[in-house]
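Sat 14:20. Reprocessing the chain from the morning session after the first attempt stalled halfway. Input below, unchanged.
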Amino acid sequence: MLSDDRRARRFLDLTGLTPEVLRARIAHREIQLAVLDFLCAHEPDLVAAAESLEIEPAAIAAARESLAR
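Finished this time. Tokens:
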């Protein structure tokens, strides 16, 4: 998430989080869901993240759905 400067800045601007808070609280469900919501809301971000993680975009979307329950 933070490795791409444009994507990271947009995410941080939209959420009001700081990189420090994101790193410190990434284990919290609400932060994970915020990240996944952000990625799933914009297909280019979703695809780029999936490529970076070497997984299918659908796996990210499925993780988001699972956390949202």
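The chain has a mean pLDDT of 94.
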